[in-house]
Inverse folding.
């Protein structure tokens, strides 16, 4: 276990000490981030919204901080200020790490640069990330790890997530069309106890010959 993982585990214990479930099972949020940004209007009083997602970055500025929050539809900026939230909520903020999943409720506004932002009023801790995410500028470089841990690949690379979402939509459309035409979907097993393979006959290679051929390769 590396040092960063140890620090995250310590924060996990501190969350529990505050009476917070670091792996909450519910957050009532019906507004995708993409819709929050698209439907933003500067009104008086400001719009109040809720959002939930994974923290991509944290930029601290004294007793305030900006965070980037992303769900499967998009990304939005969160602004948290010590005098705008409860003491417990600020303690939660101090225990956050990149990769954690949180829920946020607050008023919408635009920064001087024109970015739609949520001024946090309450924070709900949803999931503590115990392992650090891949370095954001280079993404996940290990091809074998990308194939074996697709969830990490999709977190690190939004374009990979979009590819899988598109693939899922295509498969869903094909299934809907075939179902409407009266076809039945049948799954054949990938593994079964009866050897086969079209017209090929199964055969057995004694392990001793496998060992000998391996040794011969090492000496040639």
């Amino acid at each position: 276990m590396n040092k960063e993982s140890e620090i995250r585990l310590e924060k996990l214990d501190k969350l529990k000490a505050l009476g917070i479930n670091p792996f909450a099972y519910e957050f009532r949020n019906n507004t995708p981030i993409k819709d929050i940004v698209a439907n933003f209007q500067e009104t008086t009083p400001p719009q109040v919204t809720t959002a939930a997602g994974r923290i991509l970055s944290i930029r601290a500025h004294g007793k305030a901080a900006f965070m980037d929050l992303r769900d499967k539809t998009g990304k939005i900026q969160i602004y948290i200020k010590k005098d705008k939230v409860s003491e417990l909520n600020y303690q939660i903020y101090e225990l956050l790490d990149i990769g954690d999943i949180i829920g946020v409720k607050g008023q919408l506004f635009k920064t001087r640069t024109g970015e739609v932002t949520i001024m946090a009023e309450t924070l709900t801790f949803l999931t503590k990330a115990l392992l650090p995410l891949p370095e954001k500028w280079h993404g996940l470089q290990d091809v074998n790890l990308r194939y074996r841990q697709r969830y990490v690949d999709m977190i690190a690379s939004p374009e990979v997530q979009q590819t899988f979402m598109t693939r899922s939509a295509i498969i869903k459309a094909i299934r809907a069309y075939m179902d409407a035409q009266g076809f039945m979907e049948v799954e054949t097993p990938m593994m079964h106890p009866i050897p086969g393979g079209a017209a090929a006959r199964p055969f057995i290679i004694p392990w001793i010959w496998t060992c000998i051929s391996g040794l011969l390769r090492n000496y040639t």
